[in-house]
Amino acid sequence: MPKTIMQGRPSHQLRSLATLLATTVAVLDSRCIGKPLVPQWSAGFEIGTLFFRRQFIHALALRDIAEGRAYFDSLYSVVVDKPEVDQKPSAAGEPRGDWFIPRGHQSPLTLLYFHGGGYAFYGAVSRHFIAMLAQMLQVPIFAPDYRLTPEHPHPAQLEDGLVAYRHLLGAGADPKHVVVGGDSAGGHLALMLLAKLRAAGLPQPALAIGLSPWTDIGRRGESQFGNDRYDMVQGCQTLQYAAWLKGDTGASDADLSPIHQSYRDAAPVYLQAGGKEILVDMIRDFARSLQLQGARVRLDVWEHMTHEFHAYGDTLVQSRQAIAGIREAMAWATGADAGTLAVGPQTELDGLRFVGNRI
To answer: Which residue ranges does the record assign to the Alpha/beta hydrolase fold-3 domain (predicted)?
Structure first.
């Protein structure tokens, strides 16, 4: 059952609650006069999108990022109150993070999953999403608690990602049974990790998954600012996150953007995006760049969806379809399903093909 959770400082809770109520009233008023933001959205989806937009805007306007994180965590909703998943922190000697293990699962796979949040947030809502994802995929997930910006600019996050991947392999995981993925900035990290594995002397995983991934930390595509009115994340915020990621390292946008990396001989890449999100144009550009490199890539875009619409789980048709697509892609990439991936109306680019019995 869906549940709203409030926690932390009372002043943060009260402001968040007021924001939620004001957003709800504004959305319902607009719909009463026949002016939904997007006709294909439910009232609940529109309220959720605009509420989280306002929460991010206020969190980033506070005096420091620690307070912003606390404010963002003060009120959030989850669509599954108690997923059938055992969550446990990593053991001594393991990279810092959490395991999300579905009860009674039979999967031989491990999903190394990097959370989103612009590299600056790791909200409680993200942990709930990962738990829900583990339940719906029926696959154990290890989610590293990688270092955040602005306190820790690049390459801290990539270093932490490589440590986590190396640890999984060193603990006995077969790379053919490991999938690497993430959402938003976590998708950026998964894709950057994939591009750096060869230089690190590490084998490729079976598959890389990017959910609404940030593929260029600079300016790219009309949607980055043109879809501001629809999305919960705003174009100007991507530039702030990019500045924090670069810090004073002297790194360029190209240095830190997946779209400027080489993916020749890399694992297959499965990308998902919403057609109303700010990142959709750069995700499309990234998919085409992979195709031009000869990499294996599939891109699915749900026309009316926003950034990270997957968080709605079973309560939204498009989210349910997207997570089912992840499950099918994982089975395909790891040899558990000898068929081909079904192409749906959301498929914009399909470059995943079998060669004999292998990918």
So the answer is: 111-310
